[in-house]
């Protein structure tokens, strides 16, 4: 399998999903703004979305894919299919019970999930209603995670990567159509979330049948293989989902701040999530099954080469994005969201929050790339220990900085914790000799940094010259921003090539050579 081809497949579909997500968020900002209904819906959406990221992009793959790949590699299709069906049976029953209990306990759960809402009856009531509507999404998306793990292990990345597109299309439809039949836009969006979960589930059921690998629902049994899977899943949920755990801590603390803080964090995080989803999640998703097979095949050299190339690709794409989002945060927020109920004050608050988040953007993405180095070796203990340290750091810094800096302090604390997390993961792999930076990575990394800074400086200067049209009509702002994005991309590639961080030959070998071939080129 060509690692970069798989990354491109996942990243391409994820980019499409994120672009649709921006259309969704533009509508959200115009219709909801940053008021009580917006805060309540974002809490209700954050809970199932937290599990989506935790399971679909983290813990489930970390525990399931290496075991499934092992059965597939050593015992064949029948054994792998049996294991998948055993996990499906246990997972379905456990999730159904969990969702039912959560529905009953929802008013009390919000005392923990959004304690600041308790003294605000309007936000509390809306949050309770919306979260009860969205919670069944957990059942569907967790089953989607299992089926996605099977498809990814089989090298079928496209169907899984396309599932978030269904979510965004459904929510856009809810805002444009369903909103006319519900009490508030928040109710329409909450219903849309659950409908989207059902649609994603049915989408992958069909994809598995087309792959001739359907999963039947067996009688649930805790077989030795299932017990082994569960033992890996629990710590993996913490280790792979540390970014999401920290973001969820942000929401809990932000609920204690004045109305609007949760919304500012949401809008800023949406932009921050674009490179994280397109690059970090794409690389991590493609890397884990490849590493699992290489390690089980005893090819440590190939595994190290894959890890090096994954880090190189990740930072090559993430560093310019981080610089651009930091320096151009205000015009980007203004172009995307400033209309309707979202005014200049909301733009300023969201832009400052985005700047704080982007300080940690390379770290967020690196966590997604480094964690598979542990999970492919069925080592979930080390990431859990590191996750615990990062969570404590996040909480301490958030509490210390939220009073003087409000939600900006919370976002900055998340960035600091993510850098600790990524650094400790890298050190852990290096000490075990599971990650040895090769000459190509060591030579290109500082050159990527210089190219990104050069691009950022030039883009910031040009944005200053174009300040008037950036404050103009929606069409003017959009055209200028497209010019800045396109010009920034070309400028970065120019400087990267000039400094030696990127070569024309990379384009020709991107999808034709194997990872190891590229490492030796």
Secondary structure layout plus pairing:
Layout: H1 3-32, H2 36-74, H3 77-113, H4 121-134, H5 137-153, H6 158-176, H7 185-210, H8 224-240, H9 242-254, H10 261-296, H11 300-327, H12 329-337, H13 344-358, H14 361-375, H15 381-431, H16 439-465, H17 467-470, H18 474-499, H19 504-509, H20 515-520
Note down, in words, how this protein is organized.
It contains 20 helices and no strands. The protein is mainly α and 521 residues long. It has one domain. The C terminus is likely disordered.
Keywords:
521 residues, mainly alpha, 20 helices, 0% strand, globular
Outline the biggest β-sheet: none
**Helical/strand content category:** mainly alpha
Distance between the termini: 18 Å
What percentage of amino acids are in beta strands?
Answer: under 5%
Tally of domains: 1
Strand count? 0
**Overall average residue pLDDT:** 82
Return residue spans where pLDDT drops below 50 for at least 5 consecutive residues.
Answer: 510-521
Task: Summarize this structure briefly.
The chain contains 20 helices and no strands. It is an all-alpha fold.
């Amino acid at each position: 399998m060509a690692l970069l081809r798989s990354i491109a497949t996942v990243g391409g579909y994820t980019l499409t999903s994120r672009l649709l997500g921006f259309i969704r968020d533009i509508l959200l900002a115009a219709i909801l703004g940053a008021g009580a209904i917006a805060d309540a819906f974002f809490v209700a959406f954050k809970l199932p979305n937290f599990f989506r990221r935790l399971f679909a992009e983290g813990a489930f793959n970390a525990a399931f894919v290496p075991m499934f790949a092992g059965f597939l590699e050593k015992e064949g299709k029948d054994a792998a299919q049996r294991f998948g069906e055993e996990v499906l049976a246990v997972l379905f029953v456990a999730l159904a019970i969990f969702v039912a209990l959560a529905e009953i306990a929802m008013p009390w759960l919000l005392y923990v999930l959004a304690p600041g809402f308790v003294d605000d009856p309007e936000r509390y009531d809306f949050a309770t209603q919306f979260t009860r509507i969205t919670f069944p999404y957990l059942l569907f998306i967790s089953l989607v995670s299992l089926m996605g793990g099977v498809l990814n292990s089989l090298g079928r990345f496209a169907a899984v990567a396309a599932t978030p597109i269904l979510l965004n299309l459904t929510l856009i439809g809810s805002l444009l159509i369903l909103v006319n039949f519900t009490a508030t836009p928040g109710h329409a969006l909450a219903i849309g979330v659950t409908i989207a979960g059902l649609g994603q589930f049915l989408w992958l059921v069909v994809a598995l049948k087309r792959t001739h690998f359907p999963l039947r629902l067996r009688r649930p049994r805790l077989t030795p293989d299932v017990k082994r899977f569960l033992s890996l899943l629990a710590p993996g949920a913490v280790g792979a989902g540390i970014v999401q755990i920290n973001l969820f801590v942000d929401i809990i603390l932000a609920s204690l701040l004045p109305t609007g803080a949760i919304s500012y964090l949401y809008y800023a995080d949406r932009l921050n999530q674009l490179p994280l989803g397109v690059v970090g999640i794409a690389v991590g998703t493609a890397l884990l099954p490849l590493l699992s097979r290489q390690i089980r095949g005893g090819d440590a050299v190939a595994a190290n080469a894959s890890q090096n190339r994954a880090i190189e690709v990740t930072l090559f794409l993430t560093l310019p994005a981080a610089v651009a989002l930091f320096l151009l945060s205000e015009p980007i927020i203004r172009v995307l969201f400033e209309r309707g109920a979202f005014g200049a004050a909301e733009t300023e608050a969201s832009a400052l929050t985005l700047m704080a988040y982007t300080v940690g953007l390379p770290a967020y993405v690196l966590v997604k790339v480094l964690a598979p180095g542990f999970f492919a070796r069925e080592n979930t203990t080390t990431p859990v220990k590191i996750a615990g340290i990062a969570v404590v750091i996040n909480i301490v810094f958030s509490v210390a900085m939220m009073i003087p800096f409000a939600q900006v302090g919370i976002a900055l604390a998340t960035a600091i914790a993510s850098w600790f997390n990524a650094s400790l993961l890298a050190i852990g792999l290096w000490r075990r000799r599971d990650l040895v930076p090769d000459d190509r990575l060591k030579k290109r990394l500082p050159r990527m940094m210089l190219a990104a800074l050069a691009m950022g400086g030039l883009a910031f200067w040009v944005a200053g010259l174009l300040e008037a049209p950036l404050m103009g009509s929606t069409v003017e702002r959009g055209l200028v921003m497209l010019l800045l994005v396109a010009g920034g991309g070309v400028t970065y590639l120019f400087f990267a090539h000039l400094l030696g961080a990127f070569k024309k030959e990379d384009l020709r070998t991107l999808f034709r050579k194997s990872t190891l071939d590229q490492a030796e080129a």
